[in-house]
Design brief:
With 262 residues, the chain is an alpha/beta fold. Helices cover 29% and strands 25% of the residues. It contains 9 helices and 14 strands. The structure holds zinc ion (2 copies).
Length: 262
């Protein structure tokens, strides 16, 4: 049995938990260790049982407490060589990951423990490098893509392999364009290395449609340029239009989600 829990999702911090009772790991660590511990405990889960952290990219909202957490708990940190080089010089992590680094190679599967096989793949986003993760955990297949500027063929290919898809649905185009963000920031979000709009996420859902897709989790929703209702309705309409029976969830921005069990 696999448990999935989002501990925080959005530009205020990203952290996603996966566990099966024997192995547990986090994708990203963009919330403080104390908050992490508290939110896990509130859901009957223990920080001590976390075996590893996987990193998607070197933006603050994904690695905020990776350095202090690793210094304190000495858990292995899995990441690509490109990201490791970036984190060596990042103020959050410099000098703090020593002895805990485990390298992953883009497009190659790594086996961790007896139940996890995980592959990072590069997605377009304005960090040094950004990866999504496709993994099989206790036989359940997941694809997680937290930040990406456009839907690439490779993103579709990995999404189409998933039973459970976690993907960002960052902004509503109208809300962004009529909102108060300065033009430069609007451009950054809209460009190919920014974030996915609700409509772009919908286009991914059309392209990756397959019978085996059981659930979709919308993550990294903007607080200012989106609403859970807008993101949910756009994805729901799209899933219905392609005859998908996948269940749909919006992950909360600043608190933990419920625990999803597979
Ligand atoms: Zn982010
Ligand atoms: Zn980012």
């Amino acid at each position: 049995m696999v448990q999935f829990l989002s501990l925080s999702s959005g530009s205020n911090g990203n952290c996603y938990y996966f566990g099966n009772g024997r192995t547990a790991f986090l994708i990203d660590l963009g919330i403080g260790a104390r908050t992490l511990k508290k939110r896990l405990a509130e859901n009957g889960l223990s920080l001590d049982a976390v075996d590893a952290v996987f990193v998607t990219h070197d933006h603050f909202d994904h690695i905020k407490s990776l350095g202090t957490f690793t210094e304190r708990y000495r858990k292995p940190v899995y990441l690509t060589r490109t990201l490791e080089a970036a984190l060596r010089n990042h103020f959050c992590t410099a000098g703090k990951l020593k002895g805990c680094i485990r390298y992953l190679t883009e497009g190659e599967e790594t086996v961790v423990g007896d139940s996890l096989r995980i592959t990072p793949f590069v997605v377009p986003h304005d960090a040094t490098q950004t990866v999504g993760y496709h993994f099989t955990f206790d036989g359940e297949r997941f694809t997680v893509m937290t930040d990406l500027g456009e839907v690439t063929d490779e993103a579709v290919r990995y999404a189409a392999l998933a039973d459970h898809l976690v993907v960002e649905s960052n902004y509503d185009v109208d809300m962004l364009m009529t909102g108060s963000y300065p033009p430069e920031l609007k451009r950054r979000i809209l460009m190919q290395h920014g974030h996915l709009s609700n409509e772009q996420t919908a286009s991914l859902l059309v392209r990756c449609r397959h019978e085996g897709l059981r659930d979709v989790y919308l993550c990294h929703l903007s607080a200012n340029n989106n609403t859970p209702e807008a993101a949910f309705q756009c994805a729901k309409k799209t899933l219905e239009s392609v005859g998908s029976r996948a269940s749909l969830h919006c992950l909360p921005r600043s608190c933990a989600s419920e625990v999803f069990t597979f």
